[in-house]
Amino acid sequence: MAPVLAQEKFYTIDDIYSLPDGSRAELIDGQIYNMTPPSRKHQDITGELFGIIREYIRSNNGSCRPYIAPFAVFLDKDDTNYVEPDISVICDKSKLTDKGCFGAPDWIIEVVSPGSRRMDYFTKLFKYRTAGVREYWIVDPEKNRVLVYNFESEDTGDYTFADSVKASIYDDLFINFSEIVDMLNL
Asked: How far apart are the first and last CA of the chain?
């Protein structure tokens, strides 16, 4: 008789919503990934990036909307994929509801934490690309590195925290990481 393999549990959005209050987790292809609270450095960087992006959009009368985590993104418009990117920029307002974004945001930024490294560099990179995200940035404070994936043109950029990085979804938005580092005393 052949051995019976234990089957992995397959989770849905209902399982995410039934987590105890205060718990944070993401759901990718039916698997739950618990999230730890971000560090102060992570929050400082995320907050500065969000502020720069929001101000750029406002000052240019842009139609896109930036959101900061926790913000629900239902990537594949199904009940087995739910993520909370650090920053999401959505240009198609028909994707937005009171619950979050249904479909791929145009631009996602993840600020790497020690516990999220594998997720941000591998799992989410693949998931965001296949879901239709146009641009994905991985900001890694430990390595002073910014990886930029432009999935539309299939270009990849590798920058340091001394560089100014162009957002490809906009013609003239550059984010100067050296200014962020100086301002936050990183």
From this structure: 60
